[in-house]
Amino acid sequence: MNKHLLFSTLLLTALSVFSQKYVTKNGYIKFYSETPIETIVAHNNQVNSALDIENGNYIFKVLIKSFEFKKAMMQEHFNENYLESDKIPTATFSGKVVNLSEINFQSDGLYDVLIKGKLSIHGVTKELEFSGSFEIKGDKVTAKSTFVIKPSDYDIKIARAVEDQIAKSIEVTVEVEMDKMQ
User: Fold this and answer.
1) Which CATH number is correct for 20-180, 2.40.128.110, 3.40.50.720, 3.40.109.10, 2.60.40.10?
2) pLDDT tens column, 142-165
3) Tens digit of each residue's pLDDT (9 = 90 or more) over 29-56
4) Is the N end or the C end of the chain the one with fewer CB atoms within 10 Å?
5) Cα dihedral 91, 94, 100, 106 in deg (nearest 10)
């Protein structure tokens, strides 16, 4: 084998091994809708998330059917009528940490972050920018953020009979504790 090719192969392998990635398969997402008629809260503890601190790439993926509601009927309507989770089973976010250079992943602490990317829900993808925080503790990064989305932006149709029970804007809270990949 050519020495240059061998060196290039070894270098690329070493770079991928030393890439700094943090991951989890049990992150948390909550959404909250409040109207004078009804408050709706759903929780999901099965969020896959990854952060590459070399380039700032940040992604998460959530199985829609994993959202849990207090009322079984709400969960059924959410999956069958609104999010159509049999046809479109996941929601994803793919973006970048805009202010990556301001975060010292070698030093424990709380850092403000700005994230910009694309959120895909119900087969519709929209640009999204939100702020949040990264808390660094040893080999863990805990990412937290709260932002607002509109169901209408993601082609989610709300039946007239219940449109006064579901807020026009939904608050989404994300909290993922990611471990450093070894």
Assistant:
1) 2.40.128.110
2) 999 999 999 999 999 888 888 888
3) 999 999 999 999 999 999 999 999 999 9
4) C
5) 60
Length of the chain equals 182
Provide the token pair at 138.
């040893």
- AA letter at 23: V
| CA proximity to 45, closest of 59, 18, 63 | 63
Q: Is the pLDDT of residue 107 over 60?
A: yes
CB 181 within 8 A of CB 21: yes
Selection from 105, 139, 165, 125 nearest residue 23 by Cα:
139
Half-sphere exposure of 48 (CA within 13 A, CB side): 8
Cβ within 8 Å of residue 67, ≥6 positions away: 29, 31, 42, 43, 44, 75, 78
HSE-CB for 120 with a 13 A CA cutoff: 14
Strand partners, 116: 96, 129
| pLDDT tens track for 87-99 | 999 999 999 999 9
**pLDDT confidence of residue 92:** 96
Task: Write out the two tokens for 37.
Answer: 């008629």
Q: Is the pLDDT of residue 8 over 60?
A: no
Amino acid at 76: E
Residue range 60-67: average pLDDT? 96
